[in-house]
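**Sequence with structure:**
===
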Amino acid sequence: MTDLRLPDGLPASEIIERIIIAKGVPVLCWSPGKWTFRRAKVVESMLNRFKPGELFLGDTTLRPSFALTPGTFRKFKEHRILAGSDPLPLSGEERMLGRYFSLLESPFDTERPGESVRAALHRQGEHLGSRCSWAEVISRLGRLYCLRSIKRLT
């Protein structure tokens, strides 16, 4: 929907603003590190700053299937929550694609595909598929941590 290039190191608010200006769809995806501890304050400040419809929330397979709904999801429920697989940059993660998703029904204009997709994202959809078990989440994140540790050593 956009070919926007963003330099590393920009503040979260500036990244979101640039995506909105480029008519992109900024989604703040759930992940353990992003939604807990110090970074949770950044998430809340972004949700307070950007209106529903400007910034979406992302529910992913990295939020374990038996985990309670995060307090931030409940607090900011007026922000649309989109479901997605969110594969990690690891071999084999391509199998995660389509495991968890939002089913959205909306008219599609072939002359204006980007606008059609954006309009669909604003409609209420159904979350289908499944998130990972605790064991799967720990395994996936453990593999990612090991890969990053190895890269730092080399």
